[in-house]
User: Which sequence fits this backbone?
């Protein structure tokens, strides 16, 4: 055991390239065919032989295998590393993304990447709790404390200030690569026992259900091998490993979800979004969103003189706008953010029973906040990326030994900031549920433990998705969810206050064990 | 003898009502349904065996003969101890809550680090009436050196098989024996735990004396049980059975359920001072149990053995 720990730490720290090379060579010894045959035998009546074989080949055992080391998977790892009850866990992270193998390095001079997330105050406090926010602060990030939402019809507008909800900020815009890199740096700087497998999950064998552990099996067989309570993962590079718990953090096309047989429901919105970075002549300190006939356009501050554009439209328009020349595109953007499609609004929407008349307990709007025109865009500063919009939700998040987090459980929109905030909420809730399970000696692969995570997250996520989708349907079939997502993220606490409060409570460090006081 | 029989029927009646009360509506598998009244059915069979004042071979033979008679049911019971949706669901659902109590009281008493994943490292614990090991396994994961004993052989077998699945729990020592037998063998433990057992034993006061004898001086004893107020749930059914033909001679005899006050008293007589007590309350909305001051239904007591 000691030896294993030592080895894995070495793998994790520096040698993993070498080791993986070794492992690749090892793969040639036992041919692909042999691996596959024995693999498919696993769980069948003759696994005992196989297990001993595996043991002699030193198949590693882990407490948790995180499949997918994206933002959400890494957030889970960081959270586990930061809590006293979970920091001893032996964790494998499986992801072929080369970013996981190298120390993150970002050049501050480069213009921001168009893939950004609007992180909520809840996410910020979660990052602070696990110790990752300090790394974000070393890189580009843009807090904003104002936002303005208006409509092309000129009917009205809404402006929000952070002070209105007694907050310092409404949110912070951070490039996805910075969020990811900060989580990586954070975990590198702990002595958490993690092993990174630079590979992909190809198959998964779950242990038989307890009902097949009948007494009859003992009469004819030697004592059940201990692997019988572990899930076995096989990777595309021929490696395999055993684990008590498999966490599917492998994104919207989750392989874990597929292999575990979880169903999903969802639909595509036959809408696309264009994202890109743009430049102004002045710094933008406000988040802007305007509802246009085909969908909303959002302009998010990115720090310096940069902003991020997220613009929803029908697929044909998006193809055109991706291909048109830069000057024309910039003109289109300015048009969409100013007089295009209709006049400037003259009266505040607040109290008109219109779009934003959702419960806003205790919120008083600054009445003297006048409508403003967003800063002009002068230059396109990145490529234009186009993504289709869709909504997808897994009917279950957990089964014995398997749990889904992040986009694997719910995809609200490939681009929307709220998506990843929901994922961070999942990561935090799951790590806390695992800690609580460990506190009372539970087997962390036990579905009764995992169900607590599902019970906590599913209603929150469904409610969020329902609000977003409901809005999309209520206001216009043309309106993609993105506007709502952005609105939800940006309007923050009062727009979706009950949900928000619960997210904040997850994220604000209420890591209380279920002990009585 | 008559009162013993009555107790037996009463237990069945009570467990039936508990199941109706607690079991989730989507309890489905029809072939398992007849077992559902058996929440404590193993216990009732064992309580009849342990009810024999003579704890020598007689009782055990009876247990094993029971096993012989029910060979066909054997495997299905093996499943159900560890089927978290099965007849023992209440114990599974309650488990984290009672373990939270155990963790908090033991960490405090033995000055163990409450932030440790294995705070019970170095503690010798016996789980008396361990059943399938629902409590023993978490205790082992929390670092304790665990001995699990149960009067029913098949429970011990099941506990064994299940514990062997995980190297951490395979270290548990399981024995088919009783607390009394362990006392005869002069075994001692830092912590003696008997959860949901005392209501099934013939003589609670004697049982507590045995538990005390197993506890080292200044060691801990933890007992949980159902308060006699639960009688209200069972009364109707029991009364029906009275009407059938189970009329007891002394009505006050028919329940061996203890009130918290009675438990404190008999533990005190056994040289154990109860230091902490909590109730379990069930929230039907969340399907979870939590600890509370309300000890009117299920309760758990933590006591320490006085140094003579
Ligand atoms: C192309 C794209 C652009 C996006 N742009 C934005 C944006 O601008 N703003 C925004 O807020 N959100 C954006 N999103 C959404 C946001 O990135 C997601 O909500 C967030 O990334 C979810 O994080 P995740 O960790 O759950 O999944 P992902 O970020 O999708 O991470 C999944 C990880 O799993 C790995 N993986 C996949 N399959 C396997 C396998 N079989 N074995 C091992 N590893 C596997 C992948 O390599 C990846 O690292 C975008 C999403 C996509 C796909
Ligand atoms: C309701 S179960 C409780 C099981 C376990 N303690 C738990 O709480 O998860 C009661 C158990 O006590 C056992 N039992 C009853 N009387 C006993 C006795 N006198 N000695 C040992 N075990 C006994 C039964 O066999 C049964 O497994």
Assistant:
């Amino acid at each position: 055991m000691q030896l294993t720990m030592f080895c894995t730490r070495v793998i994790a720290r520096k040698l993993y390239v070498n080791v993986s090379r070794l492992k690749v060579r090892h793969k040639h010894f036992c041919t692909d065919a042999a691996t596959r045959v024995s693999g498919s035998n696993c769980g069948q009546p003759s696994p005992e032989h196989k297990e001993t074989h595996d043991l002699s080949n030193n198949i590693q055992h882990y407490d948790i295998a995180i499949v997918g080391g994206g933002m959400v998977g890494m957030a889970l790892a960081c959270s586990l590393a930061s809590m006293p009850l979970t920091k001893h866990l032996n964790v494998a992270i499986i992801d072929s993304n080369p970013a996981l193998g190298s120390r993150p390095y970002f050049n501050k001079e480069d213009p921001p990447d168009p893939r950004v997330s609007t992180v909520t105050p809840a996410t910020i406090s979660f990052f602070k709790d696990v110790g990752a926010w300090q790394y974000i602060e070393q890189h580009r990030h843009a807090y904003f404390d104002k936002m303005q939402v208006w409509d092309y019809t000129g009917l009205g507008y809404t402006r929000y200030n952070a002070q209105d909800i007694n907050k310092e900020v409404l949110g912070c815009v951070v490039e996805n690569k910075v969020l990811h890199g900060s989580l990586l740096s954070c975990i590198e700087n702990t002595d958490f026992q993690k092993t990174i497998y630079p590979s992909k999950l190809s198959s998964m064998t779950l242990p038989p259900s307890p009902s097949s552990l009948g007494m009859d099996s003992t009469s004819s067989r030697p004592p059940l091998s201990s692997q019988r309570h572990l899930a076995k993962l096989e990777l595309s590079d021929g490696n395999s490993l055993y684990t008590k718990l498999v966490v599917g953090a492998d994104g919207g096309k989750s392989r874990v979800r597929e292999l575990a047989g979880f169903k999903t429901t969802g639909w595509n919105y036959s809408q696309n979004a264009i994202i890109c970075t743009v430049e102004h002549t002045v710094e933008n300190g406000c988040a802007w969103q305007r509802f246009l006939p085909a969908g909303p356009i959002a302009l998010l501050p990115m720090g310096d003189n940069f902003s991020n554009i997220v613009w929803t439209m029908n697929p044909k328009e998006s193809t055109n706008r991706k291909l048109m020349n830069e000057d024309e595109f910039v003109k289109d953007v300015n048009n969409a953010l100013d007089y295009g499609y209709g006049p400037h609004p003259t009266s505040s929407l607040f109290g008109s029973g219109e779009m934003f008349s959702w419960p806003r307990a205790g919120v008083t709007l600054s009445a003297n906040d006048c409508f403003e025109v967003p800063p002009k865009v002068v230059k396109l500063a990145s490529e234009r990326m186009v993504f289709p919009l869709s909504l997808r939700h897994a009917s279950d998040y957990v089964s014995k030994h398997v749990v889904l987090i992040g986009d694997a459980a719910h995809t609200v929109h490939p681009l929307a900031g709220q998506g990843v905030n929901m994922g961070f909420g999942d990561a935090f809730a799951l790590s806390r549920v695992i800690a609580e399970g460990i506190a009372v000696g539970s087997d962390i692969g036990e579905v009764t433990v995992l169900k607590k995570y599902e019970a906590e997250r599913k209603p929150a996520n469904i409610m969020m998705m329902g609000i977003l989708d409901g809005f999309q349907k209520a206001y216009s079939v043309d309106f993609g969810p993105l506007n709502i997502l952005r609105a939800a993220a940006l309007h923050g606490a009062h727009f979706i206050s009950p949900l928000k409060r619960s997210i904040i409570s997850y994220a604000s460090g209420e890591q209380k064990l279920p002990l009585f006081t | 003898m008559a009162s013993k029989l009555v107790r037996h029927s009463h237990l069945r009646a009570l467990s039936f009502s508990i199941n109706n009360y607690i079991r989730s509506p989507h309890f489905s598998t029809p072939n398992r349904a007849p077992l559902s009244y058996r929440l404590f059915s193993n216990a009732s069979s064992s309580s009849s065996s342990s009810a024999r004042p003579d704890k020598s071979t007689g009782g055990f033979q009876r247990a094993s003969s029971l096993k012989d008679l029910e060979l066909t049911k054997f495997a299905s019971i093996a499943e159900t101890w560890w089927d978290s949706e099965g007849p023992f669901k209440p114990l599974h659902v309650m488990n984290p809550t009672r373990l939270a109590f155990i963790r908090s009281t033991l960490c405090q008493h033995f000055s163990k680090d409450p932030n440790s994943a294995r705070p019970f490292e170095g503690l010798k614990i016996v789980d008396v009436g361990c059943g399938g090991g629902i409590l023993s396994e978490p205790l082992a994961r929390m670092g304790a050196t665990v001995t699990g004993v149960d009067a029913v052989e098949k429970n011990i077998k099941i506990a064994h098989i299940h514990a062997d699945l995980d190297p951490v729990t395979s270290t548990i020592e399981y024995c088919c024996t009783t607390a009394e037998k362990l006392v005869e063998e002069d075994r001692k433990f830092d912590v003696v735990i008997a959860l949901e057992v005392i209501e099934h034993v013939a003589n609670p006061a004697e049982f507590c004396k045995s538990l005390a004898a197993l506890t080292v001086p200044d060691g801990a004893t933890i007992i949980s049980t159902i308060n006699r107020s639960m009688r209200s749930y069972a009364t109707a059914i029991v009364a029906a059975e009275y009407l059938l033909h189970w009329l007891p001679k002394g009505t006050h005899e028919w329940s061996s359920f203890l009130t918290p006050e009675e438990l404190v008293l008999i533990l005190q007589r056994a040289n154990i001072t109860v230091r902490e007590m909590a109730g379990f309350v069930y929230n039907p909305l969340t399907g979870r149990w939590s600890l509370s001051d309300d000890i009117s239904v299920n309760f758990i007591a933590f006591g320490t053995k006085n140094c003579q």
Summary: Residues 2-22+63-305 of chain B form a domain with the Rossmann fold fold (CATH 3.40.50.150).
